[in-house]
Amino acid sequence: MRMKSAVLFLFVVICLLGHPTMAQVDNLHHQSSVYEAPQDPLVIQKLDEWQDLKFGMIIHWGIYAVPGMIESWALCSEDWINRDSTQTYAGFKDWYWGLKDEFNPVDFDPDQWAEAADAAGMKYLVFTTKHHDGFNMFDTKQTDYKISNGPFKDNPKADVAKYVFEAFRKKDFMIGAYFSKPDWHSQYYWWSKYATADRNNNYDIRKNPWRWNKFKEFTFNQISELMHGYGDIDILWLDGGWVRPLETVNDEVRSWGARIPEWSQDIDMLKIADMAREAQPGLIMVDRTVHGPYENYQTPEQSVPEKKIDNPWESCMTLGHAWGYVPNQKYKSVTKVVHTLVEVVAKGGSLLLGVGPTPQGLIPDEDVKRLKGIGAWLDVNGKAIYGTRTVDFYQDGDVYFTQNEDTGKRYAIKLIGEGEEIPDLITWSSDQPVKGNRVTLLDGGKRLSVKKVQDELQVKISNSVKSRIKQKEALVFEFEN
């Protein structure tokens, strides 16, 4: 058995580490084009508080960390998934789901995670309590397929989600629970009587209403456990947007390319929302891509919208090339992440950056190093990010503008390209005027003069000023408008 497992592991690594991860596939989750603002005053208040935070961490961690492969999706038979043709599908599923017997993260250290996120300047967390493969990272009573029912079960921190949430609360983070609506391990979603052709449930719900009702009950009970047994939860981040009422499927959804079943995969979000908000007043719900009252903010994935958006939204992106842990990650540079954060915030959004802990339970050193680099920039320039909102004239080339909601101060953020020198002259259009022709460079606190030349504002950066700049990824100028 050990030899068979090793051989299977080898071909999975070969097939899937080089295969596109969710971070590289663009047909999985897009941003809804329709937004319906919440009406509950407590939700509106919490959403406003969340919009002040701007920068968060999403953590994908599950049995897929053991071989270091794509999360869940290898179980799904769609065109973009590639598996070894010499292995049966049934054999592969047995191997994948059997990884639960090897997942023993003895070095699990949620405080290390929270410290890394805090050092990065992040302010909120979204943690995967369950991904599509159905493996639970919390001590659910609805199934035995969970981290607390394997080799890790006797560990004092076996109820992983509880200790993750506690560690981040100690750092004053908003807490978000990621939960996958589809559950490919559940016989109520993927019934073994039939083949599993794609991401959708694999039986006709209209002909099997009892089975679907059992799945709805299963889902409700699991979310109820999270809402009632894991302390204060600020965000319920629901993934798997294909699980939705049929009447919400529009041309936008059809354009994703995934099969649309003839039946409705309705799980009664009204009932879930009422229960969840009774337990967690003001809870922000993120029913991804299902436009309506339960998508309180939108979530474009691995992309930044072309223009600013006035309703609440968040770009979810990876620090490396994969959501979960894989060896030899292709990391984004500190400069790239800072530039993305600036653009996202100037366009009215928040950035949710993804990391994947190792199978032993630690965030890799390279992730930690890059997170510290991002935090170093925010330590100096965070006034231009936290608590800000958009302005009408929000971009002029590689200069972006934000405004502090409380003080009214405005910020011009000049992006400096990777490896480029700080220019002698920073310019932007007079469409973003500066009161009193004076700005303050946040890195060093130097007051600088602004000169207007025709329709352009110019700020000269002397060599002495340059020599005192510590964070060269982007320069931030504070001014009054």
Low-confidence stretches: 1-28
Number of helices: 11
Please trace the helix and strand order, writing H or E for each element: HHEHHEHEHEHHEEHEHEEEEEEEEHE
Mean pLDDT: 93
Strand content: 15-25%
Give the total of beta strands.
16
The shape is globular
Q: Give the fraction of residues assigned to helices.
A: 25-40%
Terminal residue distance: 70 Å
Q: How would you characterize the largest beta sheet?
A: 9 strands, antiparallel
Using the CA coordinates, give the radius of gyration.
24 Å
- Structural class, judged by helices and strands? alpha/beta
Topology, please?
Blueprint: H1 2-17, H2 41-53, E1 55-59, H3 89-97, H4 110-119, E2 124-130, H5 160-169, E3 174-180, H6 209-229, E4 235-239, H7 251-254, H8 269-279, E5 284-287, E6 314-318, H9 334-346, E7 350-355, H10 365-381, E8 388-389, E9 395-396, E10 399-404, E11 410-415, E12 425-429, E13 438-441, E14 446-453, E15 456-460, H11 463-467, E16 474-479
Parallel strand pairs: 1-2, 1-7, 2-3, 3-4, 4-5, 6-7
Antiparallel strand pairs: 8-10, 9-10, 10-11, 11-16, 12-15, 13-14, 13-16, 14-15
Helix pairs in contact: 4-5, 4-10, 6-8, 9-10
